[in-house]
Amino acid sequence: MSLVIGSIALDTIANRHGRRERLVGGSTPYFAYAASLFEKPKIIGVIGEDFPGEILREMEEKGMDTRGILRERGKTFFWEGAYSEDFHSRETITTELNVFESFRPTLPEGYQEERNVFLANISPSLQRDVLDQLGKDRFIVMDTMNLWINTARKDLEEVIGRVNGFILNDEEASGITGCRYVMDAAEALKKRGPDFIIIKKGEHGSLLLTNQGFILLPAFPKREVVDPTGAGDSYAGALMGYLQEAGEISPLSLKRAMVYGTIVSSFTLEDFGLERLRRLTRQEVEERRNLYLEMLSL
Amino acid sequence: MSLVIGSIALDTIANRHGRRERLVGGSTPYFAYAASLFEKPKIIGVIGEDFPGEILREMEEKGMDTRGILRERGKTFFWEGAYSEDFHSRETITTELNVFESFRPTLPEGYQEERNVFLANISPSLQRDVLDQLGKDRFIVMDTMNLWINTARKDLEEVIGRVNGFILNDEEASGITGCRYVMDAAEALKKRGPDFIIIKKGEHGSLLLTNQGFILLPAFPKREVVDPTGAGDSYAGALMGYLQEAGEISPLSLKRAMVYGTIVSSFTLEDFGLERLRRLTRQEVEERRNLYLEMLSL
Q: Which residues of chain B have a CB within 8 Å of the CB of A181?
C-alpha cells in the first residue's frame, strides 16, 4: 500500500461560486481519497480536536489506514484563501499552523516497510525526517510548493536528490529551475537526481520525463470549475494509487498512472473541497477514462 | 485540391541562433509547402521582381500550382523581425508592403470551384474579396493575426461569420474574445458561426471544438527550436492537406488532420524559415507521427 505524509487541514475557501467554511483539506486527504479508488493508503499526519469525526470514519470506511494520524490537543491546521474571478490566482488570507506547528512525523510499526511512499506538500525538513525513517529500496515520490522554494531551498534540494520521482506544477517547476518552458524545467529537475519528473500544467495537461524521454498528455476537456483546490494532490493520489494497483513501475505504467491522475483530478474540480472525491466511484473514473482514451484514439 | 490565399514575403529573421536575410516566408509558402506533402495546393498571391525564381521552380516541382501567383513590378512584401532570447516574444523591426500594398486577389479560371479554401493570414477585407468570388458549398477555413484584431475588427468579425472553420493561436483567440482560457475562447468563437475552431497552443498542443465537443491534443515533445516562424501556417497547411487527401470532413478526420498539423509544424521549428519544410519528406512525417501515436497509446 502507499504511505502518504503531508498536511491535513481545515480550509475556508471563497471564490465566485461562493464561500465554504472549515472544509477538510490539506495535501494528504486529497491524495488519500484519490488513492483509495485503487488501494488502501496509509496516512501519516496530525489533526486537532476540531477535526470532524465523520470524515475520519468515512476515510476508514473507504479503506484508508488512519492509524498514523495523531490527534493532538488544540486546533487543526487552518488555511483560508480566496480565488480570483477567473481562478487564475489565489490569495492566502489566513494560515494558522496550530497542531501542525510541533508536528514531527513518526512512522507506526510496520510502516517503514511500505514500498510506495508519497511525500506530499509539507516542509522539506519534515519530508527528510520521513526519508530518514524509511528502509532501503523504497519507491519515493515527492511534491512541494512555492513557499518552500523561497524559504527552505537547501532542504528542498536535498530531498529532491533522494527521491525516485518528483511531481509538481508548472509554476513550481519554473520557480525552482528558472526555466520558462516546462520541458526545460523537467530536464533541469531530472538532473538533480529523480528517475522521473511529472509536471502538472492544469488546463494544458501534464508531462512526464524519464530516461526514455518525454510523454505529453492533454487535460480531460472540462470547462466548468467549481473549486480547483486539491486538484494537484488528487492527481498525485490517483497516480500513486494506480501504480500500487498495477504492481510495477515502468514508462508504460507511469503513463497510464498519469491518465488516472488526469481523470480523477478533473472530478475534484467539480465541487468544493473534497466533496466530489467523497462521492466519486471507480466506475465513474473508468467511464471518463474511456472518453479520454476515445479522444486520443487517432 | 486546396486553394490558399495569403501573404508571400521575404523575411529577415534574427534570433539567438543567428540572423538570416531575405528568406522566403509569409503565411502562404509555409502553408503550401506543408500541404504539398499531401496534395497539390493552388496558390493565390503576389510577388515582386526580387522573389527568387529558384523557390518558384521548387514549388512547381513539388506539385504546387503557382498560376495564381502574380509577379508585379517592384519588390516583394518584406518583413524583418527579432525574437527574444527564449522565443517567447518577437519584435517587428520593418514591414514594407511593396507590391502587396495594391494586391487585390483574383481567382484564375476554374479556381472558383475548388472545394477546400484556406484564407491564410491577410487583411480581413482581402479575405472577404476572395469569399465573394467563390461558388457555393465551399469548405472554407481561415486564420488571422493580432494586427487585424486591433485594426480591422468589423471586417474580421464578418469573415468569421462566413467560414466553416477558424484556426488561430491562443493569443489571437484571447485577443478576439477577451477570454483567458482557451476552451472559453473556443466556445465564444464558435458562437460567431464556424462549424469548428482549432486553437494552436505551441508547446501546449492544440484544441478542436466541434458540435461534438472538445478534443485536446498535446504537442510533439521537442525542446530545440531554431526558428518558430511559420510553425502555425505549416500546421494549417498539413491540416488542410490531409483533409484534402482524406476526402471527408468529420470529427475523426479533423482530429487526424490535427495530428499531421502537430507533426509537420514540429519539423518547421528545426531550421530557419522554410528550410526544414523544403527538404521534409512524407516518410519523415509518418515516422514522427508513429512516435506520437506510440506516446498516446495508453
A: 86, 203, 223
Contact list in A for residue B296 (CB cut-off 8 A) is 217, 296, 298
- Classified by CATH at the fold level, domain B2-295 comes out as UDP-N-acetylmuramoyl-L-alanine:D-glutamate ligase (3.40.1190)
State whether ipTM is beyond 0.90.
yes
Chain A residues inside the 8 Å CB shell of B221: 183, 207, 213-216
* Rounded distance between C-alpha atoms, residue A84 and residue B252, angstroms: 37
| Three-class secondary structure of residue B2 per DSSP | strand
Report d(CA A189, CA A169) in Å as an integer.
12
SS3 labels along A173-233: HHHHHCCCCHHHHHHHHHCCCCCEEEEECHHHCEEEEECCEEEEECCCCCCCCCCCCCHHH
Q: Taking the domains of chain B in order of start, what are their residue ranges?
A: 2-295
Cβ-nearest to A180 among B88, B183, B293:
B88
pLDDT average per 10 residues of sequence, chain B (298 residues)? 94 96 97 98 96 97 96 96 92 93 88 90 93 91 90 95 96 94 96 97 97 97 92 98 95 96 98 98 98 97
The rounded distance, in Å, linking the Cα atoms of B255 and B190 is: 17
Give the whole-angstrom CA distance, residue B137 versus residue B139: 7
